[in-house]
Specification:
Blueprint lengths: L2 H6 L7 H21 L3 H9 L5 H23 L5 H21 L5 H20 L10 H18 L3 H9 L5 H25 L5 H27 L2 H23 L1
């Protein structure tokens, strides 16, 4: 294949400036995700939709996240809390399509404003030191996963309930990060399969994903290195801060 053939595969919206901005954006978002276990879509999707159509940006982010999530499995597998994940995941996987269906009968803007306001309030409480004495039992765990799936389908923000689940209860920060990666990997896989059935992965999405894959890899490696050097207190502060930003950005976009 000649250089001209390779150039012909580039998307119509490709420019060096768009590539440089996208590369930097994915690099930062991948770092945050690898460090905290969540937050990639929070940073990557709003930035990419300024450079391309949302119908293209979302599948690109999903593919990159899937690759990064799978890449983190070998280093986090032994740290995952499977006793909580086996209760969280069924609710998350079952309620995600239900949330999408409810969009037809619920005002998504009002709901998103309410959800994001609650997320910000709880993040502030966590910042002030609020904590549960023990992790929720089977019913509470299933409810946390179900609410994450419901929010994912309704407002595309599945993270807060599961992040709150791990940050508000006693537990090692390595276990929390690894378990968050496991939960979101499963949810992400479901989303990718859904988009595959809808033929959402066209050549534009595949080429951009390949172009940005090095940024995802570098950011993930740097984030993993940063996490290994951070203590539990720093991890908690950054994770709670990200949770507040999630709510604030969601609130602002809903307005």
């Amino acid at each position: 294949m000649t250089a001209l053939d390779l150039v012909s595969l580039l998307p119509a919206d490709f420019t060096l400036l768009a590539f440089a901005l996208s590369f930097a954006l994915i690099l930062v978002a991948a770092f945050v995700r690898a460090f905290s276990g969540f937050g990639f879509a929070l940073l990557a999707v709003p930035g990419l939709v300024m450079l391309m159509e949302p119908i293209q940006a979302v599948p690109i982010c999903l593919l990159l996240q899937l690759g990064a999530g799978l890449g983190m499995v070998p280093s986090t597998w032994k740290q995952m809390d499977f006793s909580s994940l086996r209760l969280l995941l069924p609710g998350g996987l079952l309620l995600t399509p239900v949330g999408a269906l409810l969009l037809a009968v619920i005002d998504p803007t009002a709901l998103k404003l309410l959800i994001c306001a609650i997320v910000m309030i709880i993040a502030l409480l966590l910042w002030r030191g609020f904590a549960l004495k023990k992790r929720p039992g089977p019913v509470g765990s299933f409810a946390a996963g179900a609410s994450a799936g419901l929010l994912g389908g309704l407002a595309a923000i599945p993270g807060p309930p599961v992040v709150l689940f791990y940050l508000s209860a006693p537990g090692d920060h390595r276990t929390s990060r690894a378990s968050l990666n496991g939960f979101f990997l499963a949810i992400n896989l479901l989303a990718v399969v859904t988009l595959l059935l809808k033929d959402s992965f066209d050549m534009h999405v595949l080429v951009w994903s390949l172009l940005l894959a090095p940024a995802m890899l570098i950011g993930t490696l740097l984030g993993h290195h940063g996490f290994n050097r951070a203590d539990a207190g720093l991890f908690r502060r950054i994770a709670v801060g990200l949770l507040f930003v999630t709510g604030a950005l969601g609130f602002a976009t809903a307005l």
